[in-house]
Design goal:
The complex is a heterodimer of chains A (413) and B (313). With 413 residues, chain A is α/β, with parallel strands linked by helices. In chain A, 38% of the residues lie in helices and 16% in strands. In chain A, the strands form 2 sheets. In chain A, strands 1, 2, 3, 4, 7, 8, 9, 10, 11 and 12 form a 10-stranded mixed β-sheet that branches. A two-stranded antiparallel ribbon of chain A has the order 5-6. In chain B, β1 and β2 form a beta hairpin. The chains are: A alpha/beta (413), B mainly alpha (313).
């Protein structure tokens, strides 16, 4: 009924412009495939376009376009396009939305659309499988590391703690002192901005804290590791002044902070950096060394009129040869390509030991950022319940208990 | 025509033949309908059909990702009644609307009265206060977002006077006030211009007569100006109330409904439900609620006009 109503409405709106008998191109005629992405970075777009151009040589009837959408509203925009009957043929999917997309049946299985699938690291594909079938290809498995502005540290008379000294306690000391001396900010958890708390996993994981249990049913915010981690963070913000306070904007890549926690794909922003910098793994927490990865999947929408052609393109896009090209921006899920040597060729900005420590080891041991079915609603509920934490003198355990009260009914769904 | 005439001649004894179908009256009617057709089609496609569809959707469980659309009857309405977030959302909506309407109308009227004086420079100030109206809403809001940051321009300015300003958008007490004030400055110019036009329409002889009778400025304002511009006050209050209930971009850019849920107004909440949580059916239910609230308030204002609007008495 909805389809009839929507079609009727659409026909009314487009009457005179197009016939309503199904305007899609025939499968054997020329077709245009559209892939939604969250990267408008010219270097990325250039690479995608070159892959699409190469594909066109063997498939002259297929044109592939890339539509870059803003990251903040990415999933919302794609969902709205699907609701409006304008689903993209292929879409990047954020790891936070992976369970929703994978389990809902919105994606077409990709098992036949990935060459040498045995080469894919199981830790990279875990989030993207449903009943043993690969529903999206994790084209980017990007560990978080710490970028350091070495000039700013020097200016403040600080040095970067090394070896066993690379701990959260020391990070807060160095960052706080640098901020106090230079008037810049200390360490910025990039994209957190006191809203998207999932980026805080790069901190609380060091205490062994989890947002929820492995099976997703039990809230982890009121557990001791999380309380300890959040207490540390709270002190770091309001006492140590090592993190920017709520509402304070600071961009590491513009030289406004001593350190930032970000994915290694951000290294491209440092191409023309006017300051000395380093990239190091996340510091050790009380629970020891750890690493956190963010993922991006590439899926074919089942609603696409040209799903078969889209799968065919995905096969080409993710082939070992193209995966190696994409590796300069997006760490690949292919174990054969996850070596410092291979990655080094594509990442001239990073030193081999940085790639080994942060990327190769990071992917091998990494925990994926929190994700859950219905993650948007849960994430929003956590954000609202966490807000009272971000002021001096907050009752940390009390606020965290409140988070669990807010999300437990949602986790149980 | 000739044929008809001939037939009339031949059958003179029978009753007159039926008149041609296209009478002048019918022609006029057709022309009329043809003239309103484009507007009517537009209204059907963009107003009535969506309105009906929203009600239809609200009776369904619609998951876009799973591509399911199942009839749910009153389930979404039951969910609405039991949703623990709704009271807070309605409170935030009421707070925003009342704050905006009171501040906007009071400030617009004050500015209009001040700028209605025959003084040098009033044109400059009229342009100054009206110019935000023509600025893009998003641009305006984004700039204010920067100014209201903890280390932003507003607190920098306050700092010059030794005042340690609050973290406007991040603390529960000030976030709503900040959003309201940003919106008041954005749109006060429009109401100001409407009030100015109304003020200039008040006949001068009434003022002269009042002054002759010994009325002071306040009495003149209360007894003459206010009643005579009351139709404009009705118009601006309806526009402002309806507009305040539909606020979205400002919330989305400045606070995303936070801190906590203190600025989650109804439109933002329905956006979250439908577009972020993929619950389009429940989102549609919330928009039915919004529609009913707007309708009720407008009807109420319209009914109450007889009590205080001059020309309606």
């Amino acid at each position: 009924m909805r389809k009839i109503a929507a079609t009727a409405l659409l026909c009314t709106l487009t009457a005179g412009l197009a016939a309503c008998g199904g305007g899609q191109a025939e499968a054997d005629g020329p077709i245009t495939l559209r892939m939604t992405t969250w990267s408008a970075n010219p270097a990325h777009v250039q690479l995608f376009d070159s892959i699409a151009a190469e594909y066109k040589q063997s498939h002259p009837d297929v044109t592939v376009t890339f539509e870059a959408l803003p990251l903040e509203n990415y999933t919302t925009t794609v969902t709205t396009q699907i609701a409006g009957g304008n689903a993209p043929d292929m879409a990047w999917i954020l790891e936070s939305a992976a369970p929703d997309f994978v389990s809902s049946g919105a994606l077409a299985p990709l098992d036949d659309a990935v060459e040498e699938a045995a080469d894919l690291a199981p830790s990279a594909t875990a989030l993207w499988k449903q009943d043993g079938k690969l529903m999206a290809y994790p084209f980017s498995t990007s560990p978080f590391g710490v970028f350091v502005n070495t000039d700013l540290l020097k200016q403040a008379g600080q040095s970067l703690p090394a070896g066993n000294g690379w701990t959260w306690d020391n990070v807060v000391k160095v960052a706080g002192a640098t901020a106090a001396k230079t008037g810049k900010q200390g360490v910025v958890v990039r994209d957190f901005d006191y809203k998207d708390w999932t980026y805080l996993a790069t901190v609380f994981q060091g205490w062994g804290a989890r947002a929820w249990s492995e099976d997703g049913k039990t809230c982890g915010f009121d557990q001791k590791p999380m309380v300890d981690a959040m207490t540390f963070l709270h002190q770091g913000i309001f006492t140590g002044k090592a993190f920017p306070a709520p509402g304070v904007a600071a961009d590491f890549f513009a030289g406004e902070s001593a350190m930032t926690i970000a994915q290694i794909s951000r290294a491209s922003l440092l191409k023309d950096a006017k300051f000395g910098w380093d990239l190091v793994p996340l510091p050790a927490g009380p629970a020891g060394d750890y690493s956190v990865i963010g993922q991006g999947g590439l899926g074919v929408l089942r609603k696409s009129e040209n799903a078969a052609a889209a799968s065919e393109f995905v096969k080409f896009f993710t082939s070992p040869a193209n995966s190696a090209k994409l590796a300069q921006f997006f760490p690949p899920p292919r174990t054969s390509q996850l070596t410092a040597e291979t990655l080094g060729k594509a990442n001239p900005l990073l030193k081999p030991e940085q790639l080994q420590d942060v990327v190769v080891d990071g992917i091998a041991n990494g925990v994926v950022k929190p994700s859950h079915t219905g993650s948007a609603e849960i994430t929003q509920a956590v954000r609202a319940a966490l807000d009272p934490l971000w002021k001096p003198g907050a009752d940390v355990p009390g606020v965290l208990r409140g988070v669990c009260t807010a999300i437990s009914p949602l986790l149980a769904k | 025509m000739t044929v008809v005439m001939d037939r009339v001649d031949e059958t003179r004894s029978t009753p007159p033949a039926p008149r041609p179908f296209w009478t002048t009256r019918r022609r006029d009617r057709l022309t009329g309908y043809l003239f309103i057709t484009p507007a009517l089609l537009g209204s059907i496609a963009f107003v009535f059909a969506p309105l009906v569809l929203v009600v239809w959707y609200s009776l369904h469980e619609w998951n876009v990702l799973a591509d399911t659309f199942d009839f749910a009857g009153a389930e979404n309405y039951r969910k609405l009644a039991e949703d623990p977030n709704v009271p807070a959302v309605l409170r935030a909506t009421a707070l925003f609307s009342v704050g905006l309407v009171v501040l906007n109308l009071a400030l617009a009227l004050l500015l209009a009265v001040l700028l209605n004086q025959k003084l040098r420079g009033t044109t400059f100030f009229r342009v100054l206060f009206f110019s935000p109206v023509v600025v893009s809403l998003l641009a305006w809001t984004i700039v204010w977002g920067f100014l209201l940051q903890d280390n932003g321009g507003v607190n920098g300015l306050l700092g010059l006077f030794g005042i340690d300003g609050p973290n406007w958008l991040r603390s529960g007490g000030t976030a709503m006030a900040a959003v309201v004030i940003v919106q008041v400055f954005k749109n006060v110019g429009l109401n100001m211009v409407l009030f100015l036009a109304a003020l200039q329409g008040v006949p001068q002889e009434l003022y002269e007569a009042a002054r002759t009778d010994g009325a002071g400025p306040w009495t003149i304002f209360r007894r003459i100006t206010l009643p005579l511009i009351s139709p404009t006050i009705l118009l601006t209050s309806i526009i402002t109330v309806v507009g305040s209930l539909q606020v979205f971009a400002q919330i989305s850019v400045l606070t995303q409904g936070g801190p906590g849920t203190s600025t989650t107004v109804l439109v933002y909440y329905l956006y979250q439900q439908a577009f972020q949580f993929h619950a389009f059916g429940y989102g549609a239910t919330l928009s039915v609620l919004l529609f009913l609230i707007v309708l009720a308030l407008t009807v109420l204002q319209w009914q109450m006009r007889k009590r205080w609007v001059f020309h309606e008495q």
